[in-house]
Amino acid sequence: RGLRNRGPDRYWKVQELLKNARHFRGRKNRCYSLAVRAVRRAFVYATKGRQLKRRTMRTLWISRIAAATRELGLKYPVLVDNLVKSSVQLNRKVLSDLAINEPRTFQSLAKLAQARQQEGFRAALGSGSEPPGVLSRVVLLQ
Amino acid sequence: MTARGTSSRFLQSVLQNGVGRYVCQLKRISLIFSKNAQSSLGARNFIEEGVVDYAKKNPGTVVYISPEPCRIPRLVAEYLNGNVREEKITGKTSQEISDLVTKLTNQSGLDIIRIRKPYHTDSPSIQGQWHPFTNRLPSVGPIRPPGKEAST
After folding, report:
1. How much of chain B is helix, strand and coil, in % rounded to 5?
2. Out of A43, A102, A103, closest to residue B2 by CB
3. ipTM exceeds 0.85, yes or no
4. What chain B residue is nearest to A41 in terms of C-alpha separation?
5. Ribosomal protein/NADH dehydrogenase domain: from which residue to which, for each copy (chain B) (predicted)?
6. Looking at beta carbons, which residues of chain A come within 8 Å of B128?
7. pLDDT grade, residue B149 (50/70/90)?
8. Distance from CA of B113 to the nearest CA of A (A)
9. What is chain A's Cα-based Rg?
10. Are A136 and A119 in contact (CB under 8 A)?
């Protein structure tokens, strides 16, 4: 009655779970029942964190680009809008990296965006008889 | 399975290998197999056909062949930075073993763990990293809140 084999692998199953809890604080890194709950929460946070990471990185890049453009007298939505209209397909990651490590390049990009903005204003407010601007010509590759 | 629970490293090449001359990072490769077991059949075929050509093509790698009574034939690769990688070749064909061997030759000996960023530079900034005075002269003075200027 009492000599039935209750499973030979308990030690290894416990160790496999505890290895994920080794860097925790307190008894959660030693005691199995506490570790089970802590490890499950850790995995849930890791799953949620993968989506959050994409969002937080993007907001970080945007705030950095906005700060850099405001220093040069421009605003972030203006910069992005005009870069898109000039078919400059740099993403926010690259723009923030340029703003930090290549300030002159970023300044030239801001000037480009400003020039395109002025062309846009002239096209909208002008009579239409004036020649269109240089930067607003769209290149069609065929 | 968390990022902090598992080890990770940054992308790097071993001592800037390839910038000047390329040095093969595989130091030693030992093929442990059995002379009579069925699982080592692929290993034995590989030794008949491919090992000598491989050894001639990679003069910087030492190839050891050790026939011993073992249940699972193994390929043990040792790298110049000290890492040892063991691969089981039970039941593999000679072609698969040679593919494995080329894969091990092309690897550097760095650990196969999560790489934090898929890029790395020693010189990230060419024009000089931004500091508060790149676009503003220090003689202009510190930035004041706008309310003060309106009052004076």
Report:
1. 25, 20, 55
2. A43
3. no
4. B2
5. 35-108
6. 103
7. low
8. 16
9. 28
10. yes
Chain B residue whose CA is closest to A98: B125
pLDDT range class, residue A5, cuts 50, 70, 90:
confident
How far from the centroid of its chain's Cα atoms is residue A23's Cα?
28
User: Which amino acid is residue A89, in one-letter code?
Assistant: Q
Instruction: Please judge whether A101 and B134 are an interchain contact, meaning their C-beta atoms are less than 8 angstroms apart.
Output: no
- Ranking A56-60, B43-47, B140-144 by mean pLDDT, the lowest is B140-144
Element (H or E) spanning A37, and its range? helix A32-71
Which among B126, B135, B136 has the least Cβ separation from residue A102? B126
Instruction: Check residue B148 and give its pLDDT.
Output: 62
User: Mutating which of A101, A106, A109 best tests the B interface, going by the most B Cβ atoms within 10 A?
Assistant: A101
Q: Which pLDDT does position A84 carry in this prediction?
A: 93
Please identify which residue in the block is written with the tokens 């093509």.
B57
A63: region left, alpha or beta (phi > 0 left; psi from -120 to 50 alpha):
alpha
Radius of gyration of chain B (CA): 27
